[in-house]
Every structure is written in C-alpha cells, then in structure tokens.
C-alpha cells in the first residue's frame, strides 16, 4: 500500500458504503483493514442513511445524526489504524481529522 493510500474519510452518501479513499473514491470494505465490528457499524450507518435519504426527514436533523455516527466510527478506525489519517465529515466545518 502506498503512503498516500493510508487515509480514509468516513461519511455516508446515497447508495455508497460510507468510506472514501485519499482520492475521494468510494472504498470497498475489504480494502480497509479493520475489525468486523467496524465494518458492521459502517454497513449499518450506510443502510440507515439510504433509508433516511429517501424519506421526508428534515435535512438538518439528518446531518447532525450522521455527523455523530461518522465521528464515532472514525474514532474506532483511528484506534485500530493509528498510523492512518482518518477523517469524518462535519456539515458545519467539512472534513475533520481524528487525532
């Protein structure tokens, strides 16, 4: 793996799996070397986003909920991959790196 590929962005999007590589491309779960628990969290977040994305929920409420979920998952990823750059999307400030 190249150094610039040791980065992941966590945020849900319609019909995507919630993880993005250093070039902004949707990553496959098997390309992220984390535990099955984190993969399960990502799948649940993505399924929930797809469900809400097609409903009539207020957009602001959705974004805060998914920002919180993305942040929690990103922190778990950072704990398992301390040498990686890990980001989550916060609607108010865009991408935030997890320390």
Can you give a write-up of this model?
This protein is an alpha+beta fold and 99 residues long. The chain has one domain. It has helices spanning 36-53, 59-80, and strands spanning 7-10, 19-20, 85-90, 94-97. The protein has a four-stranded mixed β-sheet. A hairpin with an 8-residue loop joins strand 1 and strand 2 (19-20). Helix 1 runs antiparallel to helix 2 (59-80). The longest helix is centred in the C-terminal third of the chain and has 22 residues, at 59-80. The chain is globular and about 35 Å long. The model has no long low-confidence stretch (mean pLDDT 83).
Task: Summarize this structure as a short list of keywords or feature phrases.
single chain; alpha+beta; globular; 4 strands; 99 residues
In summary, what is this structure?
This protein is an alpha+beta fold and about 100 residues long. The chain is built from two helices and four strands; from the N terminus they run E-E-H-H-E-E. Strand 3 and strand 4 form a beta hairpin.
Average of pLDDT: 83
Please state the structural category.
alpha+beta
Helical proportion, percent range:
40-55%
How many runs of DSSP E, i.e. beta strands? Answer: 4
**Topology as H/E string?**
EEHHEE
* Strand fraction: 15-25%
- The rough form would be described as globular
Q: Record the strand order, biggest sheet.
A: 2-1-3-4
Please outline the major beta sheet: 4 strands, mixed
Q: Mind telling me the C-alpha Rg?
A: 13 Å
Low-confidence stretches: none
**What is the first-to-last residue Cα distance?**
22 Å
Q: Number of DSSP helices?
A: 2
């Amino acid at each position: 793996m190249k150094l610039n590929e040791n980065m992941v962005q966590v945020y849900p999007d319609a019909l995507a799996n919630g993880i993005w590589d250093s070039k902004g491309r949707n990553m496959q779960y098997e390309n992220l070397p984390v535990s099955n628990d984190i993969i399960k969290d990502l799948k649940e977040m993505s399924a929930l986003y797809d469900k809400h994305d097609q409903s009539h929920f207020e957009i602001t409420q959705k974004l805060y909920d998914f920002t919180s979920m993305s942040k929690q998952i990103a922190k778990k990823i950072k704990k398992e991959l301390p040498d990686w750059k890990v980001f989550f999307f916060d609607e108010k400030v865009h991408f935030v790196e997890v320390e």
